[in-house]
Design a protein that fits this description.
Blueprint: E1 7-10, E2 13-16, H1 17-22, H2 33-53, E3 60-61, E4 64-70, E5 73-82, E6 93-99, E7 110-113, H3 143-155, H4 165-173, H5 175-189
Helix pairs in contact: 4-5
Length: 191
């Protein structure tokens, strides 16, 4: 039997702490060994799916460029979303982070714009609120589909689900003012 306190033995399965930390399973202090193994398996399955869906680095795709993923954490992507032509964001490029949970694809990823943007579904911290990231999420949705949906929301905001309620109200009441402010933010921050 292994006497290393950093190793967990279950039958013939050894899970070194390095493996556990690499896959970032959400382990609680009172978790059983079986719960830890299940968490690791979920994280490994999420990582496998994300790696399969990952676009090639640096190659432009329709409306975005995949810039990087941490080789030690492929559940965290960096992309640049190019503003859609039919929107006030057309001349901008927006740095965006997508973080996939260990439970992916059963739980949606989190999307955060690191480039400032003036939009009803994106607050000033860059946190994104969209139906596809909550109640309309389905495990069969692929990462590239999610990115396409983000670009669609830049053209047609989801006003019933705003992350920035005051911007949503402005969009509803004075779209010309909204468009001018969104364009100004684009020119100032998204170059």
């Amino acid at each position: 039997q292994d006497t290393n306190p950093r190793a967990l033995q279950i039958g013939d399965c050894f899970c070194q702490s390095a493996i556990i930390s690499r896959y970032r399973p959400p382990v609680k202090a009172d978790s059983s060994a079986a719960d830890i193994i299940i968490s690791i398996k979920q994280a490994m399955a999420a990582q496998k799916r994300v790696l399969k869906e990952m676009p090639k680095t640096g190659q432009p795709h329709e409306g975005f460029t995949f810039t990087a993923a941490n080789p030690n954490d492929p559940l965290h992507w960096y992309i640049v979303i190019h503003g859609p032509h039919e929107s006030p964001y057309a001349k901008g490029s927006y740095q965006t982070e997508i973080t996939f949970p260990n439970e992916y694809p059963f739980k949606p990823p989190k999307v955060r714009f690191t480039t400032r943007i003036y939009h009803p579904n994106i607050n000033f911290q860059g946190e994104t609120r969209m139906q596809i990231l909550s109640e309309k999420w389905q495990p069969n949705i692929k990462a590239l589909t999610l990115i396409e949906e983000i670009r669609k929301v830049l053209i047609h905001p989801e006003l019933d689900n705003p992350a920035a309620a005051e911007i949503a109200e402005e969009y509803k009441s004075d779209i010309a003012k909204f468009t001018a402010t969104a364009t100004e933010f684009c020119m100032k921050y998204a170059k």
